[in-house]
Amino acid sequence: MENKEIERKFLVVNDSFRSLATTHYDIIQGYISREQGRSIRIRLRTEADGSQKAFLTIKTRLESFTRFEWEKPISVEDFRALLPLCGNRIIDKTRYILPAEPASLKWEIDEFRSPNAGLIMAEIELPAEDTPFSRPTFIGEEVTHDPRYYNANML
Fold first, then answer.
1. How far apart are alpha carbons 57 and 28 in whole angstroms?
2. Shortest CA distance to 98 belongs to which of 31, 22, 25?
3. 8 and 144 in contact (C-beta within 8 Å)?
4. What number of helices (H) and strands (E) belong to the chain?
5. Positions marked catalytic
6. What angle do CA 126, 130, 131 make, to 5 degrees?
7. Residues 63-90: pLDDT tens digits?
8. How sure is the predictor about 59, in pLDDT bands with cuts at 50, 70 and 90?
9. What is the 3-state secondary structure (H, E, C) of 98-133?
10. Which helix (H) or strand (E) holds 146?
11. Which of 46, 90, 105, 128 is the most exposed place for a label (fewest CB within 10 A)?
C-alpha cells in the first residue's frame, strides 16, 4: 500500500543519543484538525543553516503499528498562512537523526520544548511491522500504542 508509515515509539531514558546524532533541526507543527484516529497537520522544519521546508500531512490509524500518511511539501508562506487555523494546537521541538541497526533504518529523537518541555521520545520507521531492529541504551519503555504520546494528543 502506498502512503503507509510503520512506526514504533519509545521514551528516551538518557541523553547518550546526542553524541550519536548525525544531524538535527527544529520543528514547529500545528494541527488544523485532530479527532479520534486521524489528524491534519502542518510542519515547518528549520535546518541548522537556517533554511526552511514546510509540509502538509494527513494521518489516520490503520493497523497495529501502521498508519496511512499523506505528506506533501507546501511553501513556507502557505505554512504561515495556515498556522492561525491551528489556534493553540502547536508543538515546538528539536529532532535529532541517528543511524540505527540495521543500517537501512534511522532513529528520530524528538526533544519537546512546548507544550511538553522535558519530554524526549524516539521513533523508528520500519519497512514491515515485523522488521527486527536493535535498541540502543537510550531507548526505554515502548509507547507506540499509548495515545498520550501521539503528537496530536500532546497539546
1. 13
2. 22
3. yes
4. 1, 9
5. 31
6. 45
7. 778 889 999 999 999 999 999 999 999 9
8. very high
9. EECCCCCCEEEEEEEEECCCCCEEEEEECCCCCCCC
10. none
11. 128
Q: Does residue 11 have a pLDDT over 70?
A: yes
Residue type, 80: R
Neighbours of 76 (CB within 10 A): 14
* 150 C-beta neighbours (distance < 10 Å), count: 18
Cβ atoms of residues 61 and 67 within 8 Å: yes
Record the pTM.
Answer: 0.93
Look up residue 85 and give its three cell numbers: 487555523
**What are the grid coordinates assigned to 8, written together?**
514504533
